[in-house]
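Forwarding the complex inputs:
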Amino acid sequence: MMTFEYAPAPESTAIVKIKSEYGLFINGKFVPAKGGKTFTTINPATEETLTKVAFAAPSDVDKAVAAARTAYSKVWSKMPAAERGKYLFRIARILQERAREFAVLETMDNGKPIRETRDIDIPLAAAHFFYHAGWADKLEHAGVGSSPKPHGVVGQVIPWNFPLLMLSWKIAPALATGNTVVLKPAETTPLTALLFAEVCQQADLPAGVVNIVTGDGSTGSAIVNHPDIDKIAFTGSTAVGKGIARAIAGTKKSATLELGGKGANIVFEDAPIDETVEGIISGIFFNQGHVCCAGSRLLVQENIQDELLEKLKRRISQIRVGNPLDKNTDLGAINSAAQLAKIHEISNSGDVEGAERWSPQCDLPGKGFWFPPTIFTGVTQAHRIAQEEIFGPVLSVLTFRTPQEAIEKANNTPFGLSAGIWTDKGSRILWTAKHLKAGVIWANTFNKFDPASPFGGYKESGWGREGGRHGLAAYLKGNH
Amino acid sequence: MHLIDGSASSIKSFLKTLSPVDQVGAEARAAMLGTRSIKTSSKSWAIDMAISMIDLTTLEGADTAGKVKAICNKAVRPDPSDPTVPHVGAICVYNDMVEIARKQLDAAGGHEIPVAAVSTAFPSGRASLEVKERDTKDAIAHGATEIDMVIDRGAFLSGDLEKVFSEIQFIKSICGDRAHLKVILETGELVTLDNVRKASYLAMAAGADFIKTSTGKVTPAATAPVVLVMLEAVRDWYAMTGVKIGVKPAGGIRTTKDAIKQLVLVNETAGPEWLNPQLFRIGASALLNDLLMQRMKLRDGHYASPNYVTLD
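Prediction (whole assembly, two chains):
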């Protein structure tokens, strides 16, 4: 060997025991769906079938909601808050103890690199349970009045990009505030949610407090439209989010919606350039760009564009694409054939509309769903790739001349979830942040998450916040 | 390429063109590269590469001819039981030990191994220019072909960059083509990564062949973020001037894991062209034996007793 080639360093899958079939988790037990209907889930990096999962019909959702209602009225709402907190602490500790198992399973079912599941998804999921466990008996200090009350039964529908982490964002605050839950994981990534159901059993969580129903959009729709659900929490596409808003209009249901984004990552001429390059990389290539708050629009001050792009391309050339279970992989598989087709479709529009596409030389595996890290330069506001959420490893590069122009371009979008600001000047960070219409703004960093920090969007990026005190409030009825 | 003419104003205006370093971001990048998993064939390659990059060092008041001769023999044949182990990159000693080291290396068959001398009132650099000049000339006269000089950190921190620059230039003129100049920034005293970047460019512009993190007498020494910033500096200097400058982390690199992390930093920052002893050295003493232990482990499939590795 003449150069420093990293030999394969795959994480072992021996720690994961995938069963041949999974039922629905209703009232503390795994049960088959009505009529025994199932669907399969695959490993997107290999296209191998992992297992069969029960497909919940509306009548199965009825059973899950009934179990959640009984658990709410008979057990969970009557339990002293400190006792509720103990269950959350217990779940958090079990997640930590079984972290490697969760990380490997998440990587197999989702396609994301083991480095990310191991270092980000699973530790953050545990952190959300720890954070909210502490809140359980302190809710009168959450800022929603002296005696806040839970909603009751919460229906939760989560996406495939951060399966266990989004489950934690949903279930931890719901349980801490005294609600019970019916949750549907995404069709392509049900397995860590089902492993989480086993954790609920291991923690002796009272039956019916958490119910997990697997299925597709029809299952989600049955939850959203169920008359005995008090609140909906959804993370996913803006199109589905709008449908939910229509469906619950005029009902007693409240909702938090965490939807799409087209985050602007704004680079000023005085930015710390090497760290900015890292931030741009993490902004768009973290999790294959399957991130609602991705920094998918790079707005760079025109006078440093050439230098920045040269450094960026050099760095992108080093991204290691391939087997997600390899500990040195930076960019894993696209989650599904459907998502891959969508990424192709929108990025092809970039070529047609005259933007310049660039990807490094990289060998993509023969099997599975793959897309190389890609940037488009010469992009303007009128391009589809500047307006639509691609949800893949595709960055659109636009330029600006003045801070005012950067703000105008950044805000010229129906979305408003995230933004990044790169400058060495503190006053410019504050000025820019004040004028950006985005729920989450990072300064000289990107894609950093903490359970104590509220997350959510403006405009078509959603309603409400998750995390922090603001996130708790969404699961409580105040008495101000 | 003359980026700086030596005047205070030219130095100041050149350093102002440098991009600032964001400490948090640099630390995060260095930490991420620290998670690379180097196994089997790549580990074995990295161990041999690291051995060939070591500046095997003894810089103690208690150094004697006997001690220096011992490490010279070790430098030539790190593992007497295995001739496939490469020799180290250089021997690094105090000035008065240079001649002893040179003779012993030659006697042991290590003609190609250079002797590096620490110079310019190492480690503090607190002496007059005349003393520093004498120190350097003396080392070269006794056979040193690499000079590890220290910068005047007091001058750097007080803003007298002209003095730092001219001293390096002066020592470089003494080295000429007889000795390679490594400039020690002593990053543990410069503290901020912005200072590390500025000092790196100052040294390169003044004629350094290598930029080196530390004397080994101050902690922290060769931390990953510091080495990252220095590797970025040589990478960008090459893009700017076409000249490749070497990097030498020294101090605190004691284990194979530490050394491999350094090689990963090089590979993914300056690039694979820097992965050779002409452009990357590791200043260390205890590291060599840990590399040898890990090498035996890879070869034999199990750890050997430390008694199978020679002390020095």
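The first strand of chain B starts at residue 54 and ends at 57.
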